[in-house]
Each structure stands twice: as C-alpha cells, then as structure tokens.
TrEMBL record:
<dbReference type="GO" id="GO:0016787">
    <property type="term" value="F:hydrolase activity"/>
</dbReference>
<dbReference type="Pfam" id="PF01435">
    <property type="entry name" value="Peptidase_M48"/>
</dbReference>
<keyword id="KW-0378">Hydrolase</keyword>
<feature type="transmembrane region" description="Helical">
    <location>
        <begin position="20"/>
        <end position="53"/>
    </location>
</feature>
<dbReference type="InterPro" id="IPR001915">
    <property type="entry name" value="Peptidase_M48"/>
</dbReference>
<feature type="domain" description="Peptidase M48">
    <location>
        <begin position="81"/>
        <end position="279"/>
    </location>
</feature>
<keyword id="KW-0645">Protease</keyword>
<dbReference type="InterPro" id="IPR050083">
    <property type="entry name" value="HtpX_protease"/>
</dbReference>
<keyword id="KW-0346">Stress response</keyword>
<keyword id="KW-0862">Zinc</keyword>
<keyword id="KW-0812">Transmembrane</keyword>
<feature type="transmembrane region" description="Helical">
    <location>
        <begin position="190"/>
        <end position="210"/>
    </location>
</feature>
<keyword id="KW-0472">Membrane</keyword>
<comment type="similarity">
    <text>Belongs to the peptidase M48 family.</text>
</comment>
<keyword id="KW-0479">Metal-binding</keyword>
<protein>
    <submittedName>
        <fullName>Heat shock protein HtpX</fullName>
        <ecNumber>3.4.24.-</ecNumber>
    </submittedName>
</protein>
<keyword id="KW-1133">Transmembrane helix</keyword>
Length: 313
C-alpha cells in the first residue's frame, strides 16, 4: 500500500494547498471585480456544491470522447493482471478498468476516482513499450488515482476556466464603456484592467506548477509500487523520442523544437528521468522480463491526427 514518509507527504500537501489557495485568491479577485461580492459568493457556492456532487467529469463521457474500448482479460491478460496487482499494492478499494484507445499516438491517462476509475492506453503505447516499461507507466497512472490527483486537477481546471470566462466578460464590459471612461462619466480603478488581463495567465502558470508537482509525486509512488525506477525511466525516454519525432514531422522535419519548460503541463522528461535514476539505487531489480507485450488486437496503422479532445485519432 502507498505510504510515503510523513515529511514528504507534508511538503507535498502544503505545496499543493498553497498553489490551490493562490488560484482561489486570483479567482475571487477576478470574479468579484466583474460580478461584485454577492454574485461571487453565489458562484463560489455553486462551484463547491458541483465539485462535491460530481468531483470530476463523468468517466463515461471522457471514455466515449476518446472512443475507448474495454480491454477484457482474454484480449490482454498480462495487462489486466499487471493492473490488478498494482491496484492491490496501492490499496485501491476498487480495481481500475483497463481501456484501449485506437490511436497510434503513444499515451496513457487515468480517469475517475479510487472508488470508480479507469486507465486508458493507446495502441501506440502498447506497440512501443515492453512489459517492464508498461508496468512503470501503469504504476504511474495508479499512483495518480490513489492520490486523488484527478480530483485536485479538476478543481484547478474549473477555477482556471471560470477566471478565463470572467476575464473575457470583464474586458468586454470595459470595452463597451470606453466612451463613458473617456468622457469622465465613469471611473475604473487602475488595477482592474491589469487583473482582468493577466489573471488567466497567472492561473495557467499556477495550474501548470500544480500539475508538475503531482507528476513528480506520481513518479515517486510508481517506483514504490513496482520497485523498478529503471522501467519507468526507460518508458519516459521512449515516449519522449517517439512523440518528439511526431511533432517534428508535422512542423519542422529533421529538427528538435525547443519548448519552454515553464509552459509544459508535465515536467521535462530529462528532469523526471534524473529523479528516477536517483531512486534507482534504492529500488529492487525488476522482476518482470523485458519482452514485448502480447495484445490480441490488430495494430492501428493510421497516423495520429487532431480530434475534438486532443491528438489521439
């Protein structure tokens, strides 16, 4: 069962709490600047009620959006066995369901909460990784589920979207009142336009920082589950090479495209791999052989393209 040491757990919770508190403060200031104090209270109360009644986007909606298909034990027995073992080690009350996404883009993600969750893997991921690497990726997603990261990120996403909407509405109101402002019939404090303009950017940066914190922690907990830091590190390096090559083929064939570290939803792969290598000394040797995965489905040959919800189809 996942039981991080008290100090690490405390630091992680404080860091996440400070980031969420910062986002909440910006959201309050931005919404109250547009709607006033009373309406802001109603918006906050409604948002809290909605998050309590429905902690995240319904799992079935996301699965349907990505055309995910349930992987039964007969189709992918070793995948089902790995996920069941990792869920048991993590102490999840309910084993996550395993879903297959027919896309050649290698990726994996989790949806739901510990009581009702699913791990989705693409065809490209299954063809790219060996069994040891796949175990590391599954452990990373199970760690997200066990830590309730999906709910935390959903809260951050809701606040970010509300602030973005309030910012656009506020800027539109200011634009419509420009004649009154020029005539001196209305006065707007100088900090209000600055708040409306920059609050979405600040929210995005805090949301990215929160995501990076949770990713590092999920890597750490994945190693606790598998006892094999090298498997996850190898998977990350493979994914970096493959996805990097895909984007280069579209935009700049033959060249690497630099991406600002600050604007990445995940930490740089090099940083994640370096941390995993630091943990490798304390991890036990892998018990799973490095061999290809055996999945009873035909390979997806078409190249990834844009879908409504991302580059998957």
């Amino acid at each position: 069962m996942l039981r991080p040491d008290f100090r690490h757990r405390l630091v992680n919770h404080i860091q996440s709490l400070l980031l969420i508190a910062g986002m909440a403060a910006i959201a309050w200031l931005c919404i109250s600047a547009v709607a006033g104090g009373m309406l802001t209270l109603l918006v906050v109360a409604g948002a809290i009620l909605g998050l309590l009644l429905a902690p995240g986007m319904p799992k079935r909606v996301l699965l349907s959006a990505y055309h995910a298909q349930r992987l039964r034990g007969a189709e992918f027995p070793e995948g089902a066995a790995l996920l069941a073992e990792l869920a048991q080690r993590a102490g999840l009350p309910q084993r996550p369901e395993l879903y297959y996404i027919p896309s050649s883009m290698p990726n994996a993600f989790a949806v739901g909460d510990p009581e009702d969750s699913a791990v989705c893997v693409t065809d490209g991921l299954l063809r790219l990784l060996d069994r040891r690497e796949f175990a590391g990726v599954l452990a990373h997603e199970v760690a997200h589920i066990a830590a309730r990261d999906l709910w935390i990120m959903a809260v951050a996403d809701v606040m970010s979207r509300v602030v973005s909407l309030a910012s656009w509405v506020g800027q539109l109101i200011l634009l419509l009142n420009v004649p009154l402002l020029l005539a001196g019939a209305a006065v707007v404090p100088w900090h209000v336009p600055l708040l409306l303009i920059f609050s979405p950017t600040l929210m995005s940066l805090l949301q990215l920082a929160l995501s990076r914190t949770r990713e590092f922690d999920a890597d750490r907990n994945a190693v606790r589950l598998t006892g094999d830091a090298g498997g996850l590190a190898s998977a990350l390096m493979k994914l970096e090479r493959r996805t990097g090559r895909f984007w280069e083929d579209i935009f700049l064939p033959g060249r690497r495209i630099p991406e600002p570290s600050l604007l990445r939803t995940h930490p740089p792969t090099e940083a994640r791999v370096a941390r995993l290598r630091d943990l490798a000394g304390a991890s036990t040797p892998p018990r799973r052989p490095a061999r290809p995965l055996d999945i009873h489905r035909p390979a997806v040959l078409r190249r990834p393209g844009y879908g409504r919800y991302g580059v998957y189809r």
